[in-house]
Amino acid sequence: MSEERPRQPSRPSSSDAGSPRNNRPSPPAEPSRRRFLQSAAAAAALGATPHLHAQNAPGAEPTVDAPPAASVAAQPVHLHINGREYALQLEPRVTLLDALREYAGLIGTKKGCDRGQCGACTVLVEGRRINACLTLAIMHDGERITTVEGLASATSLSPVQRAFVERDAFQCGYCTPGQICSATACLAEFDAGTASAATADVRMRPAQLTDAEIRERMSGNICRCGAYTNIVAAVRDAHSAKA
């Protein structure tokens, strides 16, 4: 019996080696980046398919959007504004600023930042200055409120208003109502002996209303036009007129 030998792999002939079919580049061992991203996207889509089928299944519970928040019932609020009583029906969430502008029709008080940072909504409540955008109207039921419309008399401007006009302490005028209300309270606080961060000794009554005192006391009111120099001069003139 003849011994069988393993067959050797046939080698390509010289004629086959030069054919175009054998000169093609071999495909890359690893997939390209684009093919990898396509595969990943397809896998993600297939993974989400069972969830979609479960949602659309006949026995599945339908998804329902959350119902809108129920409205809050309005309540009677009595505000004494500029010597006049206003009987309003307000939701407890209405701010004093919106109550003045939208319900009482007193649009002199301006809405600036609506965050208590610019001072454009400054009004006087029981003689104290506050930011009307940071307090609720219902919190001031029965209290005396003064806006810029209530500072002047029927025949003349207040000393602060007159000084602002004479000193040209405004440009666009948007912040002016809050500036004037704040300056009015600033002078009243100084006359009452209230110290500020600029007072040399806070244990004692401030000796005089210096420009540094005015700037510190008016620092909560922003003028984007940059009329600060004239505002300080107007407050100083109004103080001198009262002395």
Would you spell out the secondary-structure blueprint of this structure?
Blueprint lengths: L13 H4 L15 H24 L18 E7 L2 E7 L5 H8 L18 E4 L2 E4 L12 E3 L12 H8 L9 H16 L19 H7 L10 H15 L1
Parallel strand pairs: 1-5
Antiparallel strand pairs: 1-2, 3-4, 3-5
Helix pairs in contact: 4-7, 5-7
Task: Provide an overview of this structure.
By secondary structure, this protein is of the alpha+beta class. Among the domains are: 76-150, Beta-grasp domain (Ubiquitin-like (UB roll)); 159-242, DNA polymerase, domain 1, CATH 1.10.150. 34% of the residues lie in helices and 10% in strands. It has helices at residues 14-17, 33-56, 96-103, 159-166, 176-191, 211-217, 228-242, and strands at residues 75-81, 84-90, 122-125, 128-131, 144-146. It has a 5-stranded mixed sheet, with helices on both faces. Helix 4 packs across helix 7 and helix 5 (176-191) crosses helix 7 (228-242). The chain is extended.
Summarize the structure.
The chain has helices at residues 14-17, 33-56, 96-103, 159-166, 176-191, 211-217, 228-242, and strands at residues 75-81, 84-90, 122-125, 128-131, 144-146. The protein has 243 residues and is an alpha+beta fold.
Secondary-structure-derived class: alpha+beta
Order of helices and strands: HHEEHEEEHHHH
Overall shape: it is extended
Low-confidence stretches are none
Q: How large a portion of the residues is in β-strands, by DSSP E?
A: 5-15%
For the termini, the CA-CA separation is 139 Å
- Radius of gyration over all CA atoms, rounded: 39 Å
In the CATH scheme, what's the topology name of the domain at 159-242? DNA polymerase, domain 1
Largest sheet, if any?
Answer: 5 strands, mixed
What is the helix tally? 7
CATH class of the domain at 159-242: Mainly Alpha
Mean pLDDT over the residues: 85
